[in-house]
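agent> Task received from the user: take the single chain below, predict its 3D structure, and emit C-alpha cells. No templates, no multimer pairing.
agent> Plan: (1) validate residues, (2) run structure prediction, (3) serialize to C-alpha cells, (4) report one or two observations.
agent> Step 1 OK, no nonstandard residues flagged.
tool_call: predict_structure(input=
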Amino acid sequence: MLLTEDQLLLREGQKIVEALGKTLAPLVEVVLHDLTRPDHAITAIANNLSGRAIGEPASNIGLARILDPAFPEVLQNYPSQFADGRPAKSTSIGLKNSQGHFVAAICLNMDTSQLAAVSNSLTQLIQTEHSPLDHAGTPARTRIDAIQSALEHFAASRNTTPRGMTVAQRREAISALAANGLLLQRNAVADIAQMLGVARSTVYTYLPPEGDPP
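)
tool_result: status=success, residues=214
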C-alpha cells in the first residue's frame, strides 16, 4: 500500500523526533503533532517533560497553523512553561505538503529551570570578593588577580581579550593600570607580560611617557 504525501511527512517526522529526543535528552522534550487530526494531534513524544500523552489535541499554535497556511513555519526560542509552572524555551517547526497546507509540526521544549539553577551555582562558584590593595605588602596572588581582573575588564569592554588587544588598546590599558597604582606592585611588568603573551621588554614600550602618571 502506497503512503500518501501527508503520511510520508508524518512518518519522516517521527524519525526526526526520535533522533532529536536521543540527542537532546534529558532536558528537551520533542513532540510530533499530526495537524490533519487536531483532536488527536500528538502522535509521538520523546523525553516527555510536559506530562502529555499520545492522542491529546493540538496546541493553540497547531490550531493556528491549521486555520492559516500563512502562519509562520518556524517559531524559535520563544518563552513558554510547562503545566506545573516550570519555565521553558520552545521552538515549533511546521511541515507543509506540496499544496502548501500544514500537515505536521515538530515542537522542542527545553526545561530551563534546571539550567538556570546550574547557571546560578556556577556564578556563585566563580564569584570573587574585592578588597583594597595593600601596596606595601600585597600577597602575590592578590596582586596578580587584581591586574588580571583589570586587564580582562578593559579588554571585554572592547569586545576582545587581553591577548587579542591591539597595540593602541594595550597602551591604553597599561596607562589605566598605572593610573590605578597597579604598576607599583612588585613584578607587575612580568605579570602583565604573561597575561598579554608578550616579552617583558615589550610591556615597557606600552608604558606612559616620562612625566605621565607611573
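agent> Step 4: summary for the user.
Residues 130-206 form one domain.
agent> Done.
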